[in-house]
Write a structure and sequence with these properties.
This protein is 20% helix and 32% strand. The protein is of the alpha/beta class and 124 residues long.
Amino acid sequence: MISALDHVQLAAPPGSEERLRAYYADVLGMTEIPKPPVLARRGGCWFRAGAVQLHLGIEEDFRAAKKAHPGLRVTGIDAYAARLEAHGAPVTWDSALPGYKRFYSQDPVGNRLEFLELLQADAP
């Protein structure tokens, strides 16, 4: 029986690790975690924020997915969007999901990312 999501893997082109580190650590505020030595030889990098892990794996024939994406829950979404914009990352707001405030962005290699915050229910 599935009990939790361990991580999400995104693809990246060869030689993009430094750009990914700058984005996921410096812009998103995630912490890089070491890959096991046998996997580190393949390139790429792994990041964590709380219980959330994103793994970026190197793919020789890389093409960013246009639709597939991880949905990352955040707090203070307006400030988080401003942080991304201040670092030059695109922010596209989308109000189509009831109960959430959300936007989409892209990492430096074109991977689509969704950021969302649960809206508080109005008190009676």
